[in-house]
Amino acid sequence: MTVLADLTTSTEAFETTSPQLLEAASARVLETQVFEARESAVRSYCRAFPVLLASARGTTLIAEDGTQYVDFFSGAGALNYGHNHEHIKRQVVAHLEGDGLLHALDFHTAAKREFLDRFAREILEPRGLNHRVQFCGSTGTDAVEAALKLARKHTGRTQVIAFSGAYHGVSRGSLAATADLSLRKVAGTHLGDVTHLPFPIGPRGPFPTMDLLEQYLGDDLSGVDVPAAVILEVVQMEGGVYRIPDADLRRLRDICDRYGIVLIVDEIQAGCGRTGGFFSFEQAGIVPDLITVSKSIGGLGLPMSILLIREGLDSWQAGDHPGTFRGNQLAFVAACGALDLWRSQTFLDQARDGAELLRSFWESHPLPGVEVRCEGHAIGIDLTHAGGRQAADSVVGWCFERGLIVESTGRDKAVLKLLPALTMEPEVLRYGCELIHEALRTALSR
């Protein structure tokens, strides 16, 4: 039986055997009591998706009781190549079986050497990027912290400009650049030295942000200092899947050049092929000064984050930004396995065709009051004017009950964010879109 047949059968079973599923749900409550008793209240995703997951393969999550779920979440963008990709997994298993190093801080290692050499030759150089690679702590927020620190150190300035709708992490420096007020309140301390400007495109339409920035910087009575850096996501993912217009990004590059401002592009969720090219900024034809990369760079979802530093900006002294886990050897191995995919025409064709399938499906299935934004394998379905958060929550729950996991994001969590793996089979991709579309029609008919 195919994956799609398994999933269809699972959906049919839901419709016809709900008493048995209710009994199974009661059993799951007992199985998950330890989480209620011992895990911190800070947990979140498990509240929206109350299931005990046990395994995964490809684009399917499998619960302990055998229930299968189509994954349109992909670990919030950390699993662009799916779960346990066979080729990448073989590289990791071989490293383990050969007693390869697992922890090495920033020692020179064979695994790091291979990653540095191949990443430069296969990803950076073909895109005209001469950046050095800094290995940061294991999460994306540490790459952002390093970028902000380096920009301030290099320029001798302190101020940073960020944008409304931005998400850059929740450690203190990155949280200061994050726009979400609910997250900022939790900091419990002052988050200063960051000025937020309206993103050039958002829920209220376009905004002349670059005109405003030029006016601030060109007026010595504006009250706004020339900043050390401007940081942005080219495609705001948590903000609702909004891409800055190419012309605005090119103009921002020019402004930064004229005023000696470091341009930081956050590729943590939008990169590694998620929104089209390997990097989301490629289509605008610009070169950022600093680039933060994490999530899917680790190949299998293994923790890894890096900061790419343009030639001439590597102003660090040895040990300026240390970290115990900045040398994740397994992640280096998995990352090289993922790089193999980027040399495969089969993979490139599949990723291209999948993105086109997503775009064509949602463009040909419009719904009243619903705006759909398509960026490669990132789709934002905006329900702000079609039921808002209540409708989005309804769709998320309806899909989960029928074997598909998708999350909501954006202002008031009113945007469905579809993040299927770049490797998802076309029939499963279409099946998932059809299921989500049915959930939308059901929610909007209430």
Can you put this structure into words, describing what you see?
It is a single chain. With 446 residues, the chain is an alpha/beta fold. It is 42% helix and 15% strand. The protein has a seven-stranded mixed β-sheet, with helices on both faces. A hairpin with a 5-residue loop joins strand 16 (407-409) and strand 17 (415-418). Helix 15 (388-401) crosses helix 16. The relative contact order is 0.15.
Strand content: 5-15%
pLDDT averaged over residues: 94
Give the tally of β-strands: 17
Helix content: 40-55%
Write a concise synopsis of the structure shown.
With 446 residues, the protein is an alpha/beta fold.
What key attributes describe this structure?
four-stranded mixed beta sheet; 446 residues; alpha/beta; globular
Which helices and strands appear, and what pairs or packs with what?
Layout (H helix, E strand, L loop, with lengths): L2 H14 L1 H14 L1 H6 L6 H4 L4 E5 L2 E4 L4 E4 L2 H4 L8 H12 L12 H15 L7 E4 L4 H16 L4 E4 L8 H6 L3 H6 L7 E4 L11 H10 L10 E4 L2 E2 L5 E2 L2 H14 L2 E5 L23 E4 L12 E4 L19 H14 L2 H19 L7 E5 L2 E5 L5 H14 L2 E2 L1 E3 L5 E4 L7 H19 L2
Parallel strand pairs: 3-15, 5-6, 5-7, 7-10, 10-11
Antiparallel strand pairs: 1-2, 2-3, 4-12, 8-9, 11-12, 13-14, 14-17, 16-17
